[in-house]
């Protein structure tokens, strides 16, 4: 029905192993894993930076609102 059966998938894997060898595939897998780890770390660092900026902006807004309230109380 147009899908890939398990046998076809096993034949493809066997051909890839024969063409590239296990050592090269292991190295490729390891390099790919390092790349994914680096990407995830960069994404987490970016989110942490954005969170810190948001909290800083939120604190500035809160401080400004509190300062305005204090000024209003002094004028009243």
Describe, in plain words, how this protein is organized in 3D:
- Residues 50-76 are annotated as: Disordered.
- The protein has 76 residues and is mostly helical.
- The chain has a domain at 22-48.
- 91% of the residues lie in helices and 0% in strands.
Average pLDDT, to the nearest integer?
Answer: 83
What string, H for helix and E for strand, traces the elements in order? HH
- Number-wise, the strands total 0
Helix content percent band: over 70%
Number of helices: 2
Poorly predicted runs of 5 or more residues: none
Rg over alpha carbons: 28 Å
Largest sheet: none
Structural class by sheet pairing and helices: mainly alpha
Give the N-terminus to C-terminus distance in angstroms: 80 Å
Question: Hey, roughly how much beta strand do the residues contain?
Answer: under 5%
Q: Which descriptor suits the 3D outline?
A: rod-shaped
Function: Part of the twin-arginine translocation (Tat) system that transports large folded proteins containing a characteristic twin-arginine motif in their signal peptide across membranes. TatA could form the protein-conducting channel of the Tat system.
Keywords: Cell inner membrane, Cell membrane, Membrane, Protein transport, Translocation, Transmembrane, Transmembrane helix, Transport
Subcellular location: Cell membrane
Organism: Conservatibacter flavescens
Briefly, what is this?
This protein has 76 residues and is mostly helical. The chain is 91% helix and 0% strand.
Which key phrases capture this entry?
mainly alpha; 76 residues
